[in-house]
Amino acid sequence: MKRTNHFIKLVVVTLLAFMVTACHDLLDEQPENASFVDDTDYTQTQNMIGALYGAYERFYTRGWEDIPVISVRGDDVNAGGLGDQQDYNEADQYRYNKDFWMFNSVWQNHYNDIWDMHSAMEQIALYKEHASNPALADQYIAEIKVLRSFLLLQLARVWGDVFVPESSDPSDLLLVDLTPREQVLQHISDQMDEAAEHLPNVRPNERTDVRGGVTRYTALAVKAIANLELKNYQAVADATSEIISSNKFSLYPDFYQLFKIPGKLANENLLELQYSDFGQSSGDQKAYLFAFFGPQNWTPKIEGAGGGWGFYEPSIKYITFMMERGETTRLETSVLFTNRGIDSLKTLGYEAIIPDWVSNTTPSGDVINDYPRAIFASGKHYLPSDQLTPGRTGYGNNKNFIAIRYAEILLMHAEALVQGATGTGMTALEAVNAVRDRADMPLLGSVSLDDVVNEKFAELAMEWGIRFYDMVRLGRTSELTYADRVFSDDKVFLPYPQSQVDLYPVLKGRR
Questions:
Q1: Of the candidates 59, 280, 371, 496, which lies 20 to 30 Å from 243 by C-alpha distance?
Q2: CA distances to 235, 237, 381, 388 from 241, in Å
Q3: Closest to 112 (Cα-Cα) out of 272, 222, 2, 225
Q4: Which CATH code is given to the segment(s) 45-79+97-275?
Q5: How far apart are CA 7 and CA 51, in angstroms?
Q6: What is the DSSP string of 330-341?
Q7: pTM
Q8: Which residues neighbour 369 within 8 Å (Cβ) at sequence distance 6 or greater?
Q9: Spatial separation of the C-alpha atoms in residues 112 and 165, rounded to whole Å
Q10: 199 vs 95: CA distance, rounded Å
């Protein structure tokens, strides 16, 4: 889908994203990115929230290609083969084509949104000059800083050294050098310190003005992730300790339903991309294109429900890891099995550890048939057909996309503590056991770094590339060589898209 550049609207009627469709044109030019309308009356401060809504809209309107590119590398997930996106499959194999349109699109999607977010902050600053409650303007700017920083975090994870925009003008990048990855991450951490002071001390689902919007704890979560990448474990522990000690968050009791309609805006979710069909069988809707992740062929419980494209599957390595651990709840949630996939496990010698409950029928009654591109599908990106609003048929329609959840906070906290940091709220053992207890796994008597790493693998697989970035950060990249994949340290970051190299001379001669 070609993502157009919008003026920030003064009046926005919804916080939700525009419908994402399957078509996509390459974005080969800089955005026009006009900052704001010349005749805006900034004394009308009641319109200030429109700029905030526009920033949320941009954040939620992710191109369907964004999250797959961010998350496909790693031993937890495979790209579905036999498709029309061979370079995507190659990326999963750590063979990167700098001309691949998806790489360029993800780069531009993120930077376009960051520039628009700067435009929104600049607008709000102008409203603030006339506001009777300037603290509210500060809060709105802080919210947008968090959204911007989350996007910048993804760019730094995927490409390493990247640009750090300071205004809404893309041409500024022609005058600056790339910012080293470590400095980008520190910048994000510093931005979150600035933002947190102006944000409400509530859960996102407790907000009444912007339901599910950013709060102080979202900023702390982004800070924790950035510092985890920096291996600044004390900063991680400080941020996660505050989140835990707030007693605001809890693990959603039903792991299976967490990723479905009942889990929307759960007490576990610190940041999620929100979508809705407004409970209507037709008409306007705001949706992410989950079809990319879904099975090509299924027999849904509700006749007429649409299937997916088959481009994303849990790896056999992940599945066998889970079976060997005796996982039930998380394995059943995370993996959709086909008969061909089950037969493959048997052929590879795992028949003795395949649980009796494993079949190609989900707990919700949808049947996952064999299809060409993959032999498994991701259950975390699956919405049962009986949870679709009657009349809606799109795969995953009305499902939110969780970005940061409390389970990740607990496991980052545990990792920081076993790495030598000090914290409050929970011990490392208590944090790991809280996650295991929700998954109906036996509690541990002690916890090591290996225990934490394994728990993150079990809990967070197929989510935002977390497993890949963990293995790189911890120097465990040998794990990333599996099946027919061979990883080397020069494959940590994607090459800069050739279209961007052509635009920005500073990228020439880099990866």
A1: 59
A2: 10, 6, 30, 38
A3: 2
A4: 1.25.40.390
A5: 10
A6: HHHHHEEE-HHH
A7: 0.92
A8: 295, 297, 298, 299, 338, 339, 360
A9: 11
A10: 42
